[in-house]
## 1
Amino acid sequence: MILKTILGLALFINGGHIVSSNFKLHHYSDEDYKDIFYLKQNKSITKHCERHSELENIKKKKSYHNQEQKTVYKVTKHKKNDSSEKPA
């Protein structure tokens, strides 16, 4: 119940946006943002960024600076698996 309230508040304030570790702005749908919000530390997930119109890998990390804990998202472009590519 408390986590759903925090999620709702975060979604209302951020509007589905997150700032990556390299200070770029990314926007995800409400359902994707929910999945990112509940992501465990040092785990990653692939979601569609509406701002960049491409799949992106998002990794959630905890960062400590001046005895303060912060959540940092490392966002990278999703690379297709070589096995999924069709031979010429």
## 2
Amino acid sequence: MVCDPQRFPMSYFRFSFIIKRLLPASIVLVVFCGGIVSRVSAQLLEIHTGSAIPRDVREMYNKGLEYLAKSQDDSGAWTGGQSGPGVTGMAVMCFLASGEDPNFGQYAGHIRRGLRNIISQQNESTGFYGSSMYHHGFAMLGMAEAYGAVDDRDLWPQAGNQNQRSIGQSLELAVRAAITSQKKNPLKAWRYSPDATDADTSVSGAVLVGLLAARNAGIEVPDESIDGAIAYYVSNTAPSGQVAYSGGLGGFNESLARISIGNLVYAIARRKELPEYKATLKYLSDRIQGGSAGHGGVEYQHYYQAQALFQGDLDVWEKWNKNLIRQLKSSQQPDGSFQGSHGVSVSTTLSLLALAVNYRLLPIYER
């Protein structure tokens, strides 16, 4: 197969990933793209997709997407509680994770409007999305998951606006903004402001996962940036597996959300050999029922815990996931939404993305 870089605005590695996602395990494809030749072996289907998606998951997810589709405003954003490019990025990921064609499926228009909204809120000089590094991190993650999957040619309905950057251009600017912010920070991590000189493990998780997703999509992210951020997490991880909030601020009190964030960034950054990774995974595995979510709320905990357990131990994740499905089935509203401490838009997207691990379609959810 020959791929046209103009038709597929993605890196060779991103294109290879998509081909691998579509092929059965027995097929080996030779891909010619931009003069590069490689043999791409698809993963075994049972490894990548697992068992059939539970009916309850499909029904809840479809109802949730219907709610998100109806509640998106004309600008492409979602309101109702906290809002901004980070929330929009999470909502876009919900649609991308459903298995619908992002360019021609029933939610293609919602995806494009959401992406346009995120780009329109990006500072063209600094590359910064929105009003905080939380928004920047989640928006960057959403853009990274869309890069290579959404056709840029259909992104903007008409030319003329100076902010009409492509997904790739916007993502590269966002990565540059995150790295610039990190270089200013003596802790090599992030806090709410891009000019902050302190950091916390919650905001840093949003930004670091966004950077790791961008790197996975083929955007250049320096190794020293990842190394510095991981060193920050190591310094905030106790031998017990508990993860502090900010330089020991608040101590190493139990927060399953923070522990899940720490465990996840170790896993995605491919640092599973670290004792801190093993300690955080053991802590989570020993507490798959109950435990304190921490200040982010239970939806925030579920979002990260689903990914951390999936990356760390499939057997443990499957047990935890069954309980999650029961909880969310009982709490989903008739209109498909979920209520929570950060407003309906945030709670709905976080809950759906916790369920989306069952689909295993988002690149960031790959093991």
## 3
Amino acid sequence: MIVTAAAHPLCGERLAVEGGRRVGGVRCLIVRLPDGTPGTIEVQATSAGSAAGEQAAGALLSVEGARQLRRLLEPRVSGGEGSGT
């Protein structure tokens, strides 16, 4: 996950996500900070919490995108050409 909030001191940093929780009703991620200590960051300040109507860059597929990917991969899974069986 990447910190995307411009005002955040770690903006642009890639952090490992170790879990999630709510802090004061706000969805947060439990992350490993660059110094190795655990910390929390609001989901909306990260690539995992894109603003309404925006998609996180390269992070998620829409439902239609997942369907298209399945159609592309289906011949390979069902023993089609190149399956090696």
## 4
Amino acid sequence: MLPLAAVMNKAIPLNNDTVSPGLLGFGVFLALLVALVFLVRSMNKQMKKIQAPREADLKQQEWERAQAARAAAAAEKAGDEPSGSA
């Protein structure tokens, strides 16, 4: 019994004109393209939902934390000092 490749080579000679991806290859390519379009659309929707803080908001929060730390340090320092009325 002959191998399948030997039978195929005798039945249809393979060269650059006879070997092509055909309709199956085009269908797979088209399916991948459609899937890519839907994935990109979905990604764009998800990216729009992200609420990233602005730089001004981050600076304001940093300033508020620094003010709170200063106030806490001042209160601690005032609490440590002995008062003259005691």
